[in-house]
Amino acid sequence: TRPRIVVSRWIPGDAVALLREAGEVWLPEPDRALPTAELHDAVAGADAAVITLGEHAGAAFARAAGPQLTVVANVAVGHDNIDVPALAERGITVTNTPGVLTDATADLAFGLLLSVTRRLGEGERLLRSRTPWSFHLGFMLGSGLQGKTLGIVGLGQIGRAVAARARAFGMSIVYTGRRRAPADVETGLDATYLPHEELLRTADVVSLHCPLTPETRHLIDATALEAMKPTAVLVNTTRGPVVDETALAAALRDGTIAGAGLDVFEHEPEVHPGLLELDNVALAPHLGSATVETRTAMATLAARNVRAVLAGEPPLTEVTP
Ligand code: GLV
Ligand code: GLV
Question: What is the set of domains in the chain, with CATH numbers?
């Protein structure tokens, strides 16, 4: 019998076609977010599951699927929605989609940075409100990036891609993280390692590119925000809970830091009401990887991972506990 492949939500057609070559594919039609109970019903009897970051896969998910479940492919690079040890314990392979979303996410981080430093959202709101305005030299002044210091938290693939863009903007690069990058990476980006505290104190822009783990939850809390320059801007394109959003809203309101560009939120899809009232915050609804090209590549990679595991081959991009 052909393997049963459950896809939790809409994915681009090419990827579905790839999966159909490997088994019987089920997906919710029309597309919608399945409540947990329905997801668990749907996954019963599945050999493979393709999920997105809106769905949680852990012990209960594996039990609902049954012992034949061999692979869970996340269509995301972040995998905080998966209890990897719980699945590994049951012999289930977990895969993610690194690499293919690096540039799209780095582009969006820069978009948010420019949006907040050049007041693009605020300017657009002004125009759409039909408020009279005219060009003058003191009108809506922002701040430039040239000569400023970008502090990257987590110099992985996306952090490096953000650093490369920052170099083109004339910024200097410092970074922090669990471990130092290889010497050739540091040299190539002209990036200087700093301890976390020192990075917060010296960076003009702090951009977060670490995964969400128990260690990074609320990494940016009131104390961290207090350590940052009052002129500094925070950019978050990783996961909302890396930032204490209540503390951030207070810091932005009180001028503890100057601005923020946020693509992700602590209680997604909710956004802290304090942030919605502030003009010094640029907001995006988790669009980091949201290009046609990137989403197609992510889904295709997930499908290829499923096909590999079902064929008894090593997955392309496995997440190990
Ligand atoms: C998106 O947020 C991802 O982790 O791919
Ligand atoms: C600005 O619009 C300029 O022409 O300098």
Answer: 4-98+292-319 (3.40.50.720), 102-283 (3.40.50.720)
